[in-house]
Amino acid sequence: MSNYKIFLNKKAELDINEVAIWYELKSQNLGIRFLDYFDDFVRKISQNPFLFKISFDNFRTAHLIKFPYIIFYVIDEVKNEVEILGVYHTSRNPIAIQKHVKDTKQ
């Protein structure tokens, strides 16, 4: 199986940048470590997007184990692509996240 192409929508890009900046302000190089760890997960998703479970509808989630964040994404099997829709803190209300993810995809 070839790797899936990864796309980050604008929301996901903003999420990732905000989280990295927040961590960097907390501790030097922590933001960089977050980005490196996030990139590792993106590579895993690219190599096997079916590795992570469907959370609701066709939206899949990858839980960042070392950081309290969840990546939401969808797979387009026809185009061999994955779109990352957002990165959310695990303390957020799951119902609000689901609504936000659905709105992001529309």
Structural class: alpha+beta
Question: How many H/I helices?
Answer: 3
Morphology: globular
Helix content: 40-55%
What is the CATH class?
Alpha Beta
Task: Give a short summary of the structure.
By secondary structure, the protein is α+β, with helices and mostly antiparallel strands.
Spell out the key features of this protein.
106 residues, alpha+beta, YaeB-like fold, five-stranded mixed sheet, 3 helices, 5 strands, globular
Write up this protein.
This protein has three helices and five strands, in the order E-H-H-E-E-E-E-H. It is α+β, with helices and mostly antiparallel strands and 106 residues long. A five-stranded mixed beta sheet has the order 1-5-4-3-2. Helix 1 (10-26) runs antiparallel to helix 2.
Itemize the secondary structure elements and their pairings.
Elements: E1 5-8, H1 10-26, H2 30-47, E2 54-56, E3 59-64, E4 69-76, E5 81-89, H3 94-105
Parallel strand pairs: 1-5
Antiparallel strand pairs: 2-3, 3-4, 4-5
